[in-house]
Design goal:
The chain is globular and about 75 Å long. The relative contact order is 0.10. With 556 residues, it is mainly beta. It is 14% helix and 37% strand. α4 crosses α6. The strands form 8 sheets. The protein has a 5-stranded mixed beta sheet, with helices on both faces. It has a 4-stranded antiparallel beta sheet with strand order 1-2-3-4, with no helix packed on it. It has a 4-stranded antiparallel beta sheet with strand order 5-6-7-8, with no helix packed on it.
């Protein structure tokens, strides 16, 4: 007999992310993350796979978290960031003997780094200047030599300099300039090209847009990057751009693709990392696109040909592509399959699973698929999923939980979501909806206001309540985390507005919700970032689920 999903399963599931291919394409490294219950912490270490023998090995054995592994150009070393006393420091592991060298020991974190093509130094980004006297401490860009470990600053000033890319000939550097203080959330982040020989600086993008993820083509003649001009604020879809450095022109490569570039999926387990466009030697590009509940790897050529390279019905969390464009290494999650590592043969579409860290959990746990539904929307058809309660009995009625987005402009996706599985295991049906006003569909859909969000959500609820026999229409609940908590309350507020858009079905449902508004509970954990639930301490996540399930059992 398979067991049902439990709260403590969060300590069982393994996360496999950030795959990076070696320069010769015969090896890969990735980040393997587990939970240490005793220490109430996450343990993330560097793992390696030989892609010819498929043998795995663990390369680091720390008790903290490592991130951002990158191979040196010659494939003899891997650099990565490791968290020490709350700050991330740079380390280099020598492949031949496994020796690990600490490269930095700063009072603050190294935020980003890039290997020098010569392999003798590493470019670093963070608060490198210990002598800053201003109240605001700005990030600088510099480099350190492997031999001396001494940092030499290159770009310093009264702004944040964000390291983006180093050219293969090491004559050019790309950085983002961030003038505002809250630099992780600002709309203005233009890209600049810095000539390391002449110290000349050239703005590559518009000043009012937000751009990142820059990478050079193999001949350094072009630059690919992500971003948008923020015509619709946070609702503006990310695009893939190409800067031709010889002709000094910029073009949008994904202009005809009405879906956002990047990973906008919502989950409560996978820790998402920002991707970059990956060039091949024949000037093809690979990148993520969020579309219709999937996050897929896409292909693009410079002449405008664009198409998906990975299958539907899954969430590509991390990716890398070989120089020749023959294979991709992907971290993939599916609704009933926590993230594992896969190899995709791009030319044939053949997919091979490379890791099975969660195989025992999947084989011995009853996990349920959400059935996709499409309802009429205020702007365009609305996509949602319905998970039946576990062991539904014919003729019996069950309560329905409506789960609301926890991220602004994000989307529910075909990915593993522990909380949704937990609800179904406790005997609740679960409906999760992607209403207007969120990414993953068209630009028109994404820029919709909250009135349309309300109408789409209510129509989706009304549709399943009316058509699904096992739903007890007198036992409904709406829940959401973070931003989703605000939208949860918004549903009740809009249900009371006299001028709201209604149909007979949604009018009746609004009255039911209004009558059922017995209790709204807000729970906040201090010392927790509200914009990244995957970094909560494990005990915080457990406590939240315990309180949440207690509330559901009491009122639904």
């Amino acid at each position: 007999m398979k067991k049902t999903v439990e709260i403590q399963d969060i300590t069982t599931v393994v996360s496999v992310t950030n795959p990076q291919l070696s320069p010769n394409g015969k090896r890969a490294v990735y980040v393997h993350t587990t939970i240490n219950e005793q220490e109430d912490s996450y343990i993330a270490n560097l793992f390696h796979i030989n892609l010819e023998t498929l043998q795995h090995s663990q390369w680091t054995f720390g008790k903290g978290r490592i991130s951002s592994p990158h191979w040196s150009v010659d494939g003899t070393a891997v650099a990565y960031l490791a968290e020490e006393d709350g700050h991330k420091q740079l380390y280099v592991l020598t492949v031949a003997d496994g020796q690990i060298n600490e490269m930095t020991n700063l009072a603050t974190s190294i935020e980003r780094f890039h290997w020098s093509p010569c392999g003798k130094k590493i470019w670093v980004n963070g608060i490198l200047d210990k002598e800053q006297t201003t109240k605001q401490r700005y990030q600088q860009i510099g480099f350190l030599t492997i031999e001396s470990k001494k940092i030499e600053q290159v770009l310093v000033g009264d702004d944040h300099y964000r390291l983006e890319a180093i050219s293969h000939d090491e004559e050019k550097l790309v950085y983002a300039l961030v003038k505002e203080r809250e630099h992780d959330f600002v709309p203005g982040q233009p890209l600049y090209l810095y000539n390391l020989q002449t110290n000349d600086q050239t703005m590559l993008t518009e000043n009012q847009g937000h751009f990142s993820g820059a990478t050079f083509s193999y001949d350094d003649s072009k630059l690919a990057y992500f971003g948008n001009r923020r015509q619709y604020g946070d609702a503006t879809q990310n695009e893939l751009y190409i800067a031709d450095l010889q002709n000094q022109t910029n073009s949008c490569l994904t202009e005809g693709l009405d879906a956002p570039v990047g990973d906008y999926a919502v989950s409560d387990y996978q820790e998402l990392t920002a991707g970059k466009p990956v060039w091949t030697k024949d000037d093809h590009l690979y990148f993520q696109v969020s579309t219709m509940g999937d996050v897929r790897l896409y292909f693009a050529s410079l002449d405008g040909m664009i198409f998906p390279a990975s299958p539907e019905m899954e969430h590509v969390i991390g990716y890398d592509v070989s120089h020749d464009g023959e294979i991709a290494i992907l971290s993939i999650s599916k609704p009933t399959q926590p993230v594992e590592l896969y190899r995709l043969k791009i030319t044939t579409g053949e997919v091979e699973q490379l890791t099975s860290f969660n195989q025992d959990y999947v084989e011995h746990t009853k996990l349920l698929e959400g059935q996709p539904t499409i309802t009429i929307g205020a702007i365009e058809p609305v996509h949602s999923w319905l998970i039946e309660p576990i062991d539904v009995q014919q003729g019996e009625e069950y309560p329905l939980i409506v789960k609301v987005h926890e991220g602004t402009r994000r989307m529910f996706a075909n990915t593993f979501y522990h909380e949704l599985q937990l609800l179904a295991a406790q005997g609740y049906g679960v409906l999760y909806v992607n209403p207007s006003g969120h990414h993953g569909y068209s630009q028109e859909f994404a820029k919709a206001t909250s009135e349309f969000t309300y109408e789409d959500t209510m129509n989706a609820i009304a549709e399943v309540v009316e058509t699904i026999d096992w739903i007890d229409e007198n036992r409904l609940a709406v829940i959401g985390n973070c931003y989703g908590g605000l939208l949860t309350k918004l549903l009740f507020l809009y249900s009371k507005k006299a001028d709201r858009s209604t149909s007979e079905k949604t009018e009746q449902l609004a009255l039911k919700l209004e009558n059922m508004e017995k209790d709204t509970k807000f729970v906040r954990f201090l010392e927790v970032s509200t914009n990244d639930s995957q970094t909560y301490k494990p005990s915080y996540r457990t406590q939240r689920l315990e309180q949440f399930m207690s509330w559901v059992k009491k009122y639904v």
